[in-house]
Amino acid sequence: MSARQHDPVKDFLVQTYRDVVGEPRHKPSGAGRHNAGTDTPGTGSVGRFTPLSPTVLVAAALASSAPHLSTTLADYPSAISVMATLHSYQWLLLAAAAATITLDVYRFACHRHRVTLDAHVRQITRHQPVKITVGFPPRWRTVRRATIRLPRGAVVRPKELDEFTTAVRATVGRSPAGYTTTVRHQAHRDRLQIARTPVPPETRSTRHIALQSALDATTIFKNPTVTVASIDDHGVETGYKITFTPSMNSGATNFQAKVDEALAALAGEHESGRNWTTAWTPSEGYLVMTLVAPLPTRVDHPLALIDENLRHLPYATAAADTTMVWDVSTRSNKPHCLIVGPTGGGKTSVIRTLLTEAARRGIPFVGVDPKMIELDGLEGYPGCGAIVYDAVRAAMLVRALHAEMMARNHYVHVNKIEPSELPLLIAVLDEFFILSGKWQRLAKTGDEETREQLKELDPLGAWADLAVLARSAGIRLLLGVQRPDASLFGASSGNARDNFGTRISLGNLSQDGALMMWGDAHVGRDVDTSIPGRGMVTAPDGTPVSAQMWWTPNVDRHPNKWTQLTAADQALLDGLTPREAPQFALYSTELREFLESERALARRARSHGGAPEPIALGSAPAGDPSTDTATPAGSAGASIGGEDGEEVADAIPASQVTEGMTVLIDDGTAHLVAVTVHAVEVTYDPHTGDVRETTLTIREGRRNTAITFDPTEVVFLPEPDAPTAPSPQP
Fold first, then answer.
1. 3-class DSSP state for residue 556?
2. By CB neighbour count within 10 A (0-12 exposed, 13-18 middle, 19+ buried), where does 525 fall?
3. For an engineered disulfide with 154, which of 150, 338, 371, 484 has Cβ 3.0 to 4.6 Å away?
4. 95-144: pLDDT as tens digits
């Protein structure tokens, strides 16, 4: 075998020997210096293992076999003397051999652990250990304790320390049950300390463990830590504090809302039946989860004055029994209120709540009700200036309110007073889509006098000005609609919708409706509609929160209405009715004259007005034998206006109409007829995304008729509460 060839057996034996006893330690050149990051054999901190037992074991073997060896060494008296002496210490040498073998086993275990730790330190931290000390006696597979001295000033990064800890636990840190191996870096002493410590008994609750485990398994927070913030008298955890490293996301509202939902789902239902809520402090890197009382399923309008501030109109109860208010003060950044919800969803009750609270606080109001059934009970209520039902009279009211606003602003300018000194006035417009549609229809199909009058009044333009400018004049707007489309504010409204900072949505919104109302397509879409009065409202910080609206019964004291109420509801209305009616302080002759004339018309209607009794189908009204059938109200061809006593149907923006929907179209003779829409084409502005125009195609036999609508125009539905599909654009 040539010198260049290797013997596999020899190589195996040499490698095994080196693995067992290790390489001889050589001091590197340059005394006192340590080569950091080197992995060269022979330069480690662990030298060759030298056993102690072989010498003692040989002596014990000679002592045991001395009688047999004496016959062989008979010719050597000195050897026989030595053998005799060894034999006399036979048992002592055997005991010493056993002790040294045991000692070598422990020493070899320490050596193996030092070699392993040395390799881990050099490979992970790239530092050459100065000295490795393993606690004696060690276990064969585990280290109870060890100290690793590092070069002076050695830096061990947190990530390297974590990797080293993992490696130690996988090789020499296999602790028995109930113990764990910990590694600490004592930088001031330049050493790593390894110790086996008992695992403290688990005292955390299942909910606490679930929260911590879920946060550790995700990346939503950096370095999350969950601690118990509060417990009740029975030792049940009622609050948790979650600390984390602040990031850009932790201050985002949408991010916080999603985390709140996830944490509430992880925490689950609490034993007390209360719900979880979260308070964020992202600047300091923590949030606190606490329990709040669940929303009630019904809240009757309280008789006590809940909020002593006379410029706060309470109307709902949110989580933790928090009272939600509409701040109508001059300093309010949410001066106008927008209520969105389907017919029958509770808008009227909320409006009654707000107006009765306003009357209790000395704030008068005027209203418009195009359906003639929503606000009629408020007519004659203390503080009510008038409730208008006619479309033309409603246009006159809006123009009179505009004149009142300008007169108030002029008064402030001339007398140099603060706007907060002006008395407040609330203007209510319910079902604004219907009112807007009636204005548009009368402007096209009404008589010449009506068309000229509406053109001069320009109610949509006046309304848009009120929405933007009425705040400083002490006029507050309360608007009830089914859908908050920007088109309902008129083409010249600009950002008028944005001035309605106090917002209330009832029932479930469509995706587009939620986006237009709350700026989030997911808010207000999962409201529990089985609970009357449940919805979303604007919190003081501007965020939407779930709330239960207060129930206020119909305040109409007409016997036909009053007798339908329970004794509790009658007592509630008696307690809510103010003893003194709020006083009107009007700054314009236009509004004063209009209210006086409207009140006179209302008194005349109550004194001399009437409505025909219902007629059975197929019978003739008394005194009119020529008529043998009655036309059902709301049928095709019925005049929609409210002047003749018919029920007014709902209206929607023309851009919201979908293919196959049945709508009412003017036939050119001042009558609305029901037609089915064959196709819809909506044109949008490419820059702003606003609706430019809407074209509805109506098929009549083989002929198609295209009808074009402006962005602000609406169409009537054949029946109230007819379902509508959301439009693709807000």
1. coil
2. middle
3. 150
4. 888 888 888 888 888 888 888 899 999 999 999 999 998 888 777 778 88
Q: Which residue has the tokens 């509508």?
A: 724
Contact 351, 341 (CB under 8 A): no
Q: How far apart are CA 639 and CA 144, in angstroms?
A: 95
Element (H, E) at 325: strand 322-327
Give the C-alpha separation, 180 to 442, whole Å. 84
What mean pLDDT is predicted for residues 530-545? 90
- Return the ∠ at Cα 712 (arms to 461 and 446), rounded to 5°: 75
22-54 residues labelled b (16+ CB within 10 A) or e (exposed):
bbeeeeeeeeeebeeeeeeeebbbbeebebebe
Q: How many other C-beta atoms lie within 10 A of the C-beta of residue 704?
A: 11
Q: In angstroms, what CA-CA distances link 647 with 396, 598, 601, 687? A: 22, 22, 21, 41
Q: Does residue 258 carry a pLDDT above 80?
A: yes
Query: Dmax of the chain from CA atoms?
Result: 164
pTM over 0.70: no
Counted residue by residue, the chain has a size of: 730
Instruction: State the residue for tokens 């203390």.
Output: 382
Helix (H) / strand (E) element for 682: namely strand 672-684
CA 521, 522, 525, 527: dihedral to nearest 10 degrees? -140
- Output the pLDDT for position 331: 86
Assess contact for 539 and 320: CB atoms under 8 A.
Answer: no
